[in-house]
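A sample copied in:

***
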Amino acid sequence: MTSHDLRNQLESLTTEAFRPELAEIDRMPTLDIARLMNGEDAGVPAAVAARLPQIAAAIDAAAERMARGGRLVYAGAGTAGRLGVLDASECPPTFNTEPGQVAGLIAGGPEAMVTSVEGAEDSAELAREDLDALKIRPEDTVVGVSASGRTPYAVGAVEHARSLGALTVGLSCNEHSALAAAAEHGIEVVVGPELLTGSTRLKAGTAQKLVLNMLSTITMIRLGKTYGNLMVDVRASNAKLRARSRRIVSLATGAPDEEIERALTEAGGEVKNAILIVLAGVDGPMAARLLEESGGHLRAALAGTAD
């Protein structure tokens, strides 16, 4: 593709549109710019709301595969790639996911998290190599993320993952995108032109973050990683999270502090097991067995003890 062709392609994208009414923004008072920017951001949730059916369908499909041992893999370049890596990196402490169960790939590798890696986003071949390094299987879900919906790395990742039989999702911020067309589940959250022309780390980035929050969080809810709205699979890896673990057991059981401490000790610090010990009156090994039999779903394990 020539530079002229690329320029024409970018000019056709909603996310790249120039807004002449904002041409004097640099001369406005700071508070007025802040108000303007805040007003722009306020429209993002509505744009996400318009795509909730597509988002829900992608989540249900991903959760079904992950329940069979599959992984959730994000692939993107620049801001989109960084958001995917961020979402993936927060799953182990929040949901006690296994290493690699949720992964983020960014064009150019880890270096690209903090600096630009020239040309990486233009390489579909690089995306194929990154996915092959993960040994993508049919049980996996690969989510390509790109504001424009045309980024070769994201589109290439989805196309390659689909050829391997994996579930594919394409998240973009333009309608009729190549990324959505390449994926089984296309999610196009159209937020409109940016405050700064082409700066898709703004509204487009916010929209992507909201959707990624949904993809990972609701998938984990479907997998039994929560009990109600409590993070019962939280990994207590520091003092704050250990305190949070005690609070979660308290909220779920209403037990006194002494009983909570005994249960957490018996459960080896596992919140879900400790709740089961308190509510079902079982010991640590029995709690572990019941949870294994229920596929890690605390409600199902509790229901089993009531039979």
Remarks:
- Residues 203-222 form the longest helix (20 residues).
- DSSP finds 15 helices and five strands in the chain.
